[in-house]
Amino acid sequence: MRMAQIWMHHLGYRWKKSPRGQYVDGHKRDDVREYRDTVYLPKIAEADGCRRVWNRDGKEDEESRARRNPNEPVVVDHYHDETHFTANDRRDLRWVHDDEKPVPRAKTEGATLMVADFVSADCGWLCSPDGSLSARVLFKAGIARDGWFDNNDIIRQVTLAMDILDEFYPHERHRFIFDNATTHRKRSDDALSARNMSKKPTQAGKATWGVWRTKTGPDGKPIYGPNGKVVKEKIRMADARFSNGEPQSLYFPEGHPRAGVFKGMAQILIERGFNEQLINGLRTECKGFKCPPSSQWDPEHPCCCRRLLYNEPDFVSVPSILEMHCQARGYEVIFLPKFHCELNPIEQCWGRAKRYYRELPPSSKEADLERNALESLDSVPLESIRR
């Protein structure tokens, strides 16, 4: 064993932890690359010439300012993200004097405080000019605390952000950029989806096909049954859209012999102009919904009904609740490509704040934790954000 160890050292090997680099899982997936190249990058590029450009001193670059179109509103991109501050998060590497003795330390990370915020190069953390109103949200995550930060919390936060922008920055064009998390991409309960649809209409005597959702009370909270489980209810799926934009109901209309019954995928596709003989000869779906790859996909010779409907434009581009909520007030939402957290500049703001936080006195109480976290966030200078 000793001889083997000597030879390993001689050959340039060392017994230590594997070197860690940046996360790259999924960066090269076909769907991720396609979204990045065909959706995200064009959306970012379309604002070129309408943004403010900052120099190293945090001042607006005069040359780019002169080139900016004066007839177009300035585009401001607000990046969103969440991070956590923990009570016992302290620096592990520092200058230690020879006389310093070991002291007892906490075994766990201690209390946690989640922070969700927006940042932009134009105004830093999103708030009113005097700082009295802020889009920042502090959240104590946990079952016995504030629960979990979900889509409803995101909607409330972005509503506050839009209120601030409407009141104090109405002459600019604002866009919100979120990461590609399921919390942000959540669709409405009745959103279009070809998943689980039957090929044929619902059989007579059976409950018509629909979407199951959690039943809520007047306060918006889930209703629980006597067995302690959440009560579910079935609702109709929302209308689809023909290529000309007109609505297409997924259920037979009033006056039809089977009014209110789900039509089935075959009928839905036939109404869209697909050959009836072709559709009737297709299987419902490939086994396990594992269809041939996109490179082998031929719409003229589809493999199954579900894949054919799945690729229809209105089924592909179903907006999230967040997108619909912001679009209703004239704001655009852009999602970062999956696994591309390095594209979000707010990550550097979190890092700068946490470095400052670790130098503060320990957060022995939750009040100390909140005070230290806020002080750390406010310590990030606007000049650094603009760099």
Automatic annotation (TrEMBL):
GO molecular function list: nucleic acid binding
Designated name of the protein: Tc1-like transposase DDE domain-containing protein
Organism: Hericium alpestre
Superkingdom of origin organism: Eukaryota
InterPro entries, sorted: RNaseH_sf
